[in-house]
Amino acid sequence: MRRADRLFRIVQLLRSGRFATGAQLAAKLEISVRTLYRDIADLQASGVLIEGEPGLGYTLRREMDLPPMQFTAEETTALVLGTRMVAAWGGASMASVARDALLKIEAVMPERFRVEMDAVQMYAPDQVLPSQVRNDIDALHTACIKQCVTTFLYHRLDGAIAPRRVRPLALAFWGGVWTLAAWDEHRQDFRNFRLDRMQYLQVTEDIFHPKRGQRLKDYLRQVVPAKELRKLGLASSEKIKKT
User: Fold this and answer.
1) What is the CATH number of the domain that holds 26?
2) What domain range is 198 assigned to?
3) What is the pLDDT of residues 27-41, one digit of tens each?
4) How does pLDDT run across 212-229, given as a tens digit for each residue?
5) What is the percent of the chain with per-residue pLDDT over 90, rounded to a whole number?
6) Which three-class secondary structure string do you get for the chain?
7) pTM above 0.70, yes or no
């Protein structure tokens, strides 16, 4: 962790107003107590209103607290609707985290803004995606981030079922259907796969290292409109094959 990030986290941990010992703070930050004391001293010297001393504990004076978050009515609507859509169409873990995040935001907002959040009359129907698809979304998102080779059986458009071994690159939502963009190891080309046509999904422990021509940026060159490609300084090419 960068030192600047560590100093920021110290302030955030002390923002609760409760005393925290140096040992408690050091454990949460996974640093030594000596390093913690040095960081606290540097923050105090720079003007951060931290009270306390080594051996007793620390807290942040209320004068350092941030004002309550404030959003416009339009921002509140976007925030609430976005969370509801993630809860309705996201992965199981993603949906739970989205709901928790909204509760945390609501807890620190002034009363009149909480009323505005309750008054948002825009909804996304819940319990639309099968639980297996929700779990697959979470698993594939992890596979994209950690670059894990993934296998599954795929129901093709012609009715055939074929085993696939792919390198996941990104997930996309098309207003009812999730697809996975991946490099197909057998066909040695990019492919799009609908999650609702997958069976027996398994994220393996095999780590892949994207090569030139197999990366997400290479995939985007094939699917992003030419106008947008020019803005990004990328060259146009053929559209990706679909399965």
Assistant:
1) 1.10.10.10
2) 131-232
3) 888 899 999 899 999
4) 999 998 998 888 766 655
5) 37
6) CCHHHHHHHHHHHHCCCCCECHHHHHHHHCCCHHHHHHHHHHHHHCCCCEEEECCCEEEECHHHCCCCCCCCHHHHHHHHHHHHHHHHHCCHHHHHHHHHHHHHHHHCCCHHHHHHHHCCCCCCCCCCCCHHHHHHHHHHHHHHHHCEEEEEEEECCCCCEEEEEEEEEEEEECCCCEEEEEEECCCCEEEEEEHHHEEEEEEEEEECCCCCCCCHHHHHHHHCCHHHHHHHCCCCCCCCCEC
7) no
